[in-house]
């Protein structure tokens, strides 16, 4: 059954007299617990799609259903709760607060949500328990990304939205991050959605959505995605 469903979604940006159709009447669906990758050239609408699904921006037309609830009908207060309780965000540049320890960064998110996954469990799930009292300046890029995944995980989100999560990392560290995300998706039944320029990542996804010029070019589902260890880049 579809867990995320876009029905005829269009997003138009206005800047001065110009209008830009970033998404043009798109339809697709992802299932609960899927590990999905969104690919497409620069400007094809990937971040716009993520922003709409994450409740950070509004669609111009169409419906976005999450667990059968139409989020395009939510008011600002409902969207705030949706972002807080349903969505975990992982970005390319981590967005970790520098004056808090790894643990404190994670625990702050935990306290804001009504989650069943404790900060301790989340930090253990990303293999960073031994570094929990370190400050961000004492951690590597891969470790910072693990903190940001634990911060998203401790909300026990229905959907994890990842915008180029390996973009700033070397390939080995990037693979480790993808492995954590893949394991998390399997263990917690989290729907993980990764936006990337790296087409190789598509091989480990069970669903691959390709965007082009704001339109869906293809949606390909695979019953046998590769394990992270099996891909080369
Ligand atoms: N806030 C905005 N105001 C005006 N135009 C915007 C805005 N955000 C995005 N756009 C335009 O919408 C189109 C889609 O942008 P989007 O960022 O979604 O693409 P993308 O596929 O994520 O690109 P990239 O891979 O370069 O990040 C582009 O033409 C972009 O310039």
From TrEMBL:
<keyword id="KW-0813">Transport</keyword>
<dbReference type="InterPro" id="IPR027417">
    <property type="entry name" value="P-loop_NTPase"/>
</dbReference>
<dbReference type="GO" id="GO:0098796">
    <property type="term" value="C:membrane protein complex"/>
</dbReference>
<dbReference type="GO" id="GO:0016887">
    <property type="term" value="F:ATP hydrolysis activity"/>
</dbReference>
<dbReference type="InterPro" id="IPR003593">
    <property type="entry name" value="AAA+_ATPase"/>
</dbReference>
<dbReference type="Pfam" id="PF00005">
    <property type="entry name" value="ABC_tran"/>
</dbReference>
<feature type="domain" description="ABC transporter">
    <location>
        <begin position="4"/>
        <end position="231"/>
    </location>
</feature>
<dbReference type="InterPro" id="IPR017871">
    <property type="entry name" value="ABC_transporter-like_CS"/>
</dbReference>
<protein>
    <submittedName>
        <fullName>Putative ABC transport system ATP-binding protein</fullName>
    </submittedName>
</protein>
<dbReference type="InterPro" id="IPR003439">
    <property type="entry name" value="ABC_transporter-like_ATP-bd"/>
</dbReference>
<comment type="similarity">
    <text>Belongs to the ABC transporter superfamily.</text>
</comment>
<dbReference type="GO" id="GO:0022857">
    <property type="term" value="F:transmembrane transporter activity"/>
</dbReference>
<dbReference type="InterPro" id="IPR017911">
    <property type="entry name" value="MacB-like_ATP-bd"/>
</dbReference>
<keyword id="KW-0067">ATP-binding</keyword>
<keyword id="KW-0547">Nucleotide-binding</keyword>
<dbReference type="GO" id="GO:0005524">
    <property type="term" value="F:ATP binding"/>
</dbReference>
């Amino acid at each position: 059954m579809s867990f995320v469903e876009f029905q005829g979604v269009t997003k138009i940006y206005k800047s001065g007299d110009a209008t830009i159709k970033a998404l043009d009447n798109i339809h697709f669906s992802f299932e609960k617990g899927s590990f999905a990758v969104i690919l497409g050239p620069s400007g094809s609408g990937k971040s716009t799609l993520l922003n709409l699904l994450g409740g950070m921006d509004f669609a111009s037309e169409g419906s976005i259903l999450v667990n059968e609830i139409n989020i395009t009908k939510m008011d600002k207060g409902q969207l705030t709760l949706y972002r807080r309780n349903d969505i975990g965000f992982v970005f390319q540049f981590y967005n970790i607060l520098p004056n808090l320890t790894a643990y404190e960064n994670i625990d702050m998110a935990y306290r804001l949500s009504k989650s069943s996954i404790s900060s301790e469990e989340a930090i253990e799930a990303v293999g960073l328990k031994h570094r929990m009292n370190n400050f961000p300046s004492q951690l590597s890029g891969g470790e910072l990304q693990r903190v940001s995944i634990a911060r998203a995980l401790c909300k026990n989100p229905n959907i994890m939205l990842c915008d180029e999560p390996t973009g700033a990392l070397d390939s080995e560290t990037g693979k480790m991050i993808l492995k954590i995300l893949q394991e998390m998706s399997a263990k917690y039944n989290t729907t993980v959605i990764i936006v990337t320029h790296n087409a190789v990542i598509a091989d480990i996804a069970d669903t691959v959505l390709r965007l082009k010029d704001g339109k869906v070019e293809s949606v390909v589902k695979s019953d046998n995605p590769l394990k992270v260890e099996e891909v080369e880049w």
